[in-house]
């Protein structure tokens, strides 16, 4: 069946729309990698979503090649392979030694190991329609796993009642992409393309529904910014047995008052003996020299947001 056959114009329409929308989904992590490039650090982000997306795109390209007359599948997944390769390259450039080692290990196991195994097992022993079916259902299994990955985000939103890590735009485009590719697969009578996108559609609808329910809940990061800074100032005089918490704006006054009280008590109780005056002065200087001011800042330190990256299987 020719993809540009005028008897099936809707296949072409849904395929083109699916390509356009999936491009936006593939480009969604661009701000994340701009931030990585600017900070010269991966900042705790993980490479797993990008390696899995590359693996998925390569599988769908293989399926499209053996299926034939699926140029729109080839186009979008070739774009996905290029984009994900760029993402992984940037990640490897700025990742720590441990993160780089784990990424290389994942690449070798998924791309060099599993993908090569699937390719060899299906290319030589199988042929014709049987090969297409086997590769197609393998793609279905991978696509379901990719679409099911964001379920952890759904549980996090329900638990925290916050959409801080659930961008509406990405959920919207994922839902549109699933609709277009479902229609494309349905019109082609290809269940390997249609079925995974049923799950993608329902997942996208759930995400947008949760966003509508919890969108007015302020994110945790914003609440932290509004918490006033609470500073406890501790005056340590002489040894560690005399500790006096005081307000930050009255540190100097309090220290002076404490010094005056000590001097007054020492003058009343035991007048200084002239012979021991240098020793007393020396002891007093040590006490004053030992006085130090420690500020304990109870405000929580800023932390990077937990990376939440959703991968789209464009098929």
Automatic annotation (TrEMBL):
InterPro entries under this entry?
Answer: SWEET (IPR047664), SWEET_rpt (IPR004316)
Under the cellular component aspect of Gene Ontology, which terms does the record hold?
plasma membrane
Membrane association type: Multi-pass membrane protein
Coiled coil where?
none
Which chain regions cross the lipid bilayer? 6-27, 48-65, 71-94, 106-128, 134-158, 165-187, 193-214
Subcellular location per UniProt equals: Cell membrane
Q: What does this protein do?
A: Mediates both low-affinity uptake and efflux of sugar across the membrane.
GO function terms (MF aspect): sugar transmembrane transporter activity
Q: Which Pfam families match?
A: MtN3_slv
Q: What is this protein called?
A: Bidirectional sugar transporter SWEET
> Is the Amino-acid biosynthesis keyword given for this protein?
no
Which family would the database say this protein is a member of?
A: Belongs to the SWEET sugar transporter family.
Q: Does the keyword Amino-acid biosynthesis apply?
A: no
Q: Which UniProt keywords apply?
A: Cell membrane, Membrane, Repeat, Sugar transport, Transmembrane, Transmembrane helix, Transport
């Amino acid at each position: 069946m020719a993809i540009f056959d005028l008897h099936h114009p809707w296949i072409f329409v849904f395929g083109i729309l699916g390509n356009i929308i999936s491009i936006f989904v593939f480009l969604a992590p661009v701000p994340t990698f701009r931030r990585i490039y600017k900070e010269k650090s991966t900042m705790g982000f993980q490479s797993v979503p990008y390696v899995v997306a590359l693996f998925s795109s390569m599988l769908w390209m293989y399926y499209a090649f053996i299926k034939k007359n699926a140029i729109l599948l080839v186009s979008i997944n070739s774009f996905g392979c290029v984009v994900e390769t760029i993402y992984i390259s940037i990640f490897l450039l700025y990742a720590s030694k441990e993160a780089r080692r784990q990424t290389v290990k994942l690449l070798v196991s998924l791309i060099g190991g599993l993908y090569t195994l699937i390719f060899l097992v299906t290319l030589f022993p199988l042929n014709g329609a049987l090969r297409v079916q086997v590769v197609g259902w393998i793609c279905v299994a991978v696509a379901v796993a990719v679409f099911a990955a964001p379920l952890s985000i759904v549980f996090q939103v329900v638990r925290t009642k916050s959409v801080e890590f659930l961008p509406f735009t990405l959920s919207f485009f994922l839902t549109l992409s699933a609709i277009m590719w479902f229609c494309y697969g349905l019109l082609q009578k290809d269940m390997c393309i249609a079925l995974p996108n049923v799950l993608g559609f329902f997942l996208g609808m759930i995400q947008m529904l949760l966003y509508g329910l919890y969108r007015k809940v302020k994110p945790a990061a914003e609440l932290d910014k509004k918490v006033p800074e609470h500073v406890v100032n501790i005056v340590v005089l002489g040894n560690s047995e005399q500790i006096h918490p005081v307000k930050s704006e009255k540190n100097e006054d309090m220290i002076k008052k404490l010094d005056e009280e000590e001097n007054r008590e020492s003058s009343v109780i035991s007048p200084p003996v002239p012979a021991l005056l240098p020793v007393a002065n020396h002891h007093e200087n040590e006490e004053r020299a030992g006085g130090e001011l420690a500020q304990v800042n109870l405000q929580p330190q800023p932390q990077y947001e937990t990376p939440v990256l959703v991968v789209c299987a464009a098929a």
